[in-house]
Amino acid sequence: GNMTDVSEWWSNEIIEIEQGSISLRGVPIENLIGEKSFTEMIWFMTTGNKLNKKKSHLLEAALVAAVDHGPQAPSIAAARMSATCGVDINNSLATGINMLGDIHGGAGQQALEFYIDIQKKGIENLNEIIKDCKKLNNGFIPGFGHRFHKLGDPRTPRLLNLVDNAVKDGEIGGKFVKIGRQIEKEISNKKIIPMNIDGATAVIYAELGCPPPLARGLFCLSRSVGILAHAWEQMQQGERIKGPTPPNYKWDYKGK
Fold first, then answer.
1. Which are the contacts of 57, defined by CB distance < 8 A and separation ≥ 6?
2. CA separation for the pair 18, 119 (Å, rounded)
3. How many CB atoms lie under 10 A from the CB of residue 57?
4. In angstroms, rounded to a whole number, what is the distance separating the alpha carbons of residues 186 and 199?
5. CB 229, CB 126: distance < 8 Å
6. Other CB atoms closer than 10 Å to residue 166's CB: what's the count?
7. Are 41 and 200 in contact (CB under 8 A)?
8. Cα–Cα 20 to 30 A to 200, which of 2, 38, 69, 160?
9. CA–CA distances in Å: residue 116 to residues 52, 54, 173, 174, 179
10. How do residues 214-235 score in pLDDT, each as one tens digit?
């Protein structure tokens, strides 16, 4: 058949480059440098839309909140281990990011999908929707409860406070923060099952109209800051081949 014209091969709506000129989504790079914040730039590049300062402040809060949760998180541990193996810093970053999957790192996307589902089916059907969700997820509701912060995730109240302010300012509609709080009420009957970081950032992504898979990508950008910090610190410590356990630790052999 007809060979595709080479200029069509990587055609895109993100960037145009000519001799001496670079435009991102139709805006010359020199008009973006020093004008747009990195957060605004992330949104502009990924969605093609501009965020005003107040909405951008909300997105930035979500990105700041999720940067790190310590070396007990497999992504951070793996990045630190890789840093002791003689690889470059970009390899350690990739090692950490590659650990972020449906179970470790996917809850924000799942919570966002859940909120959107509730909004479509109607909050009056919340009880049924929660039951179905629990069946699918071994009793878990994505974005609620935390295996470490039993009494409440310290990041959530601050994020929701910022969301409430943005609703007051008329910046966002607030229907998703209502949904999030309603879920927390519904599932916290015997003991409180508080909204966690994934549920709280999902509220922000939902209010901003971010598609769920892209929200996971934005979480990965955020967490890569923590991964970078840990990999860099580990490199400064000069340890070699740091395994998952201290050297004198013996594992159980369960074979014959």
1. 162
2. 45
3. 16
4. 15
5. no
6. 22
7. no
8. 38
9. 23, 23, 14, 13, 9
10. 999 999 999 999 999 999 999 9
